[in-house]
Design goal:
The structure is a single chain. This protein is mainly α. It has one domain. Helices cover 71% and strands 0% of the residues.
Length: 123
């Protein structure tokens, strides 16, 4: 059950990244149709919001895996079956640290940089 929670958070993270790429592409298409107007820069706000949401999913996924590892090593007769993942907050990096982790930072900064580069070439 705990692994199902972690898998759900991981799939939500993937969906967030897909939506982020779609939003960036839509705004870049709009920017290419309206030359001279900085429409592409409007994509930065939803991309940052997706980044925040994705960091939340990754943070909760880390907590769920930590909880799973805790119960995995305990004998079955001592398990209390409490699946509240918030009890693992102290054993994982904080939410802002997760937001600025290497993988998320590279993904979202490259999308934002790509928007600036492509918008410069369009206009």
């Amino acid at each position: 059950m705990i692994l199902t929670i972690a898998d759900r958070m991981a799939s939500n993270s993937i969906f967030t990244k897909r939506y982020c790429i779609t939003i960036a592409a839509v705004f870049l298409v709009l920017a290419s149709e309206q030359k001279g107007v900085k429409t592409a820069y409007l994509a930065i706000f939803p991309i940052v919001m997706m980044w925040v949401l994705d960091a939340n999913f990754c943070w909760k996924e880390l907590m769920a895996y930590k909880l799973y590892n805790k119960y995995r090593t305990i004998p079955e007769d001592q398990i209390d079956f409490d699946i509240d993942i918030s009890q693992m907050r102290s054993s994982v990096p904080s939410w802002p640290a997760t937001m600025f982790s290497t993988t998320l930072l590279i993904f979202y900064i490259s999308i934002i940089a790509g928007i600036f580069i492509i918008d410069r070439s369009i206009n």
